[in-house]
Amino acid sequence: MSESSENTGAQRPEGAGSPERPAAPRQPAGASGGSGLRKEAARAAELDAAGPLTATRDRFVLDEDTVYLDGNSLGALPRSVPGRIADVITREWGELRIRSWTESGWWTAPERVGDRIAPIVGAAPGRVVVGDSTSVNIFKAVVGGIRMAGKGCTEILVDATTFPTDGYIARSAARMAGLAVRPVEPARIADEVTERTALALVNHVDYRTGELNDLPGITAALHSAGALAVWDLCHSAGALPVGLDAHGVDLAVGCTYKYLNGGPGSPAYLYIRESLQERFESPLPGWNSHADPFGMDPGYTPAGGILRGRVGTPDILSLLALEAALEIWDGVSIEEVRTKSLALTDFFLECVNEYAPPGRVRSVTPYEHRRRGSQVSLESVGAGEVMEELIRRGVVGDFRRPDVLRFGFTPLYTTFADAERAAWVLGEVLREQADRDTAADAGTATAAVPPAEGPVAGGDGG
Ligand SMILES: Cc1ncc(COP(=O)(O)O)c(C=O)c1O
Ligand SMILES: Nc1c(O)cccc1C(=O)C[C@H](N)C(=O)O
What we know:
There is one protein chain. With 462 residues, the chain is α/β, with parallel strands linked by helices. It is built from twelve helices and 15 strands. The chain folds into two domains: 136 residues, Alpha-Beta Complex (Aspartate Aminotransferase, domain 1), CATH 3.90.1150; 249 residues, Aspartate Aminotransferase, domain 2 (3-Layer(aba) Sandwich). Helix 1 packs antiparallel against helix 12, helix 2 packs antiparallel against helix 9 and helix 10 packs parallel to helix 12. 48% of the residues are buried. The site of pyridoxal-5'-phosphate (PLP) has 13 residues, from helix 5 and helix 6. This is Kynureninase. Keywords: Hydrolase, Pyridine nucleotide biosynthesis, Pyridoxal phosphate. Pfam families: KYNU_C (PF22580).
């Protein structure tokens, strides 16, 4: 099975096609679908014209030949970034050199950029610090959480459907602390937590299915049992309201290269609830989190507040690229982003229902709005090959083994025309696949995934 769409969305430039098969040009919305004007394309044009968040697309580098639906893995490049990075390199580094740590604000960038992310995840200033990878921040959060837990705790819970890195790091952290790890489905955490549970590490949105877990409910249930709630926001931050302060979340981490568009490998962030900050003992107490870093004291005295989440020298180029990327959020509310995200994913599901031949795909993303993140995941036979073909035809999503097609919707730049075009091309690819299967021996051909209940997804979207 080909895996070129699995890790990075595409291993060749998007829409570039293969030497044997050039990329098909993208049809404009409203184009003919083979039997006259497609009514969904006309509807997409109306929805795009009505906005909101239509203008923010122009602030990204995107090409009109490609439908980019992989912002849940790597966000598109904001136009504000290249110029800013050129200035950081030529002037701040090239001319000011070491002076930039103070004069260009490099030293304080982790907290400053944290304060820029804070409103997007529902946190007040001083509660988010940026630096290191998500994996490293998971380690800080889990060990820091365990150190704050009650003496009698014997275990931590980990989301049984977690993105793998969370599970790996949590198991290692628990082993160091002499605690057991119990994988539990997010929906079961409220029933499974006990007074011996130190904390639970849970993904806000499931990377594979796009399911949105109940952050307020799970956090409250953990607190009732005396446990801490540690959330991984990689697939929700920048796509929907999180409400960290409002829901009393204890610790949270997330990456910035998906819906925050910070760029490949841009630094992650750590949130520490204000009332826990003075008790937070980092397992990675580097000199950047010392109360007096330039005192060069051999003994460690932690800084106050969120500075405790820092470790070593920040990755300035990536951090300042992220800061420039976040300018797009000036004047944009996360509530309007969520409204558009749900409208886009609803519309995409409707179009897939309309265009996909019956029984070839089934949505594993919940249809109820309260359980849906900002991606649609469709189970499909031969998903790897289907995604390869979609990418060849200019529709870039990705594929997760064994059979999931993922389509991520970034409301800041994804249009309804993108959603319609992607569904149309998917329909084409699936119809060709079905025709090939029919032509082959019906007994040995790939069997179609039976639809759950008729259409791709059912329900009332509430
Ligand atoms: C939920 C989740 N957690 C963590 C990560 C990865 O973290 P890192 O940036 O350390 O690779 C990802 C994606 O790569 C993810 O989807
Ligand atoms: N972080 C990634 C990377 O460095 C390379 C390719 C993909 C990624 C991803 O972010 C994968 C993503 N977290 C996922 O949901 O599968």
